[in-house]
Amino acid sequence: MKFEVIHEENNAIVDALVDGVRQFNAGLLGPEKSVPLTVIARDENGKLIGGVGGRTIYKNFLINVVWVDDQTRGTGLGCKLMALAEAEAKQRGCLVAQVDTLSIQAPVFYEKQGFEIIGIVTTNPQRIFLMKKY
């Protein structure tokens, strides 16, 4: 057995690890495909000004990233993007959404969207895990 510490991104290795987890899960839960779900907004010039990105699998919407451009924050764009992404997740049969954020980022935003805090890692900044049941 040989161990390695890798200090750079290696998509082939990460893909192989994820594939191993998926095969294990399929043996227990049945086959299901992880399907990307991204909703974005662009301004009138085509510039990306916000988006929600994640995936759906096993009736879960796993949110990886939510971002809104500084000039557009506070306009309701983030709420609209989340609503559209969640509507699509529900259409796909999702029963729950999950997201994590840092205490310096947007925990209050997610709570206003109906998410509940389900865990906190007490580092500085704190990492906050949230969930929303549909």
Spatial order of the strands in the main sheet? 1-2-3-4-6-5
Name the CATH homologous superfamily.
Gcn5-related N-acetyltransferase (GNAT)
Q: CATH topology, anyone? A: Aminopeptidase
Give the topology string: H per helix, E per strand.
HEEEHEHEE
The CATH class is identified as Alpha Beta
Helix content: 25-40%
The total strand number stands at 6
The CATH architecture can be given as 3-Layer(aba) Sandwich
Q: What does the main sheet amount to?
A: 6 strands, mixed
Q: pLDDT average, as an integer?
A: 95
Based on the model shown, name its key terms:
134 residues, alpha+beta, Aminopeptidase, 3 helices, 30% helix, 35% strand, transferase, acyltransferase activity
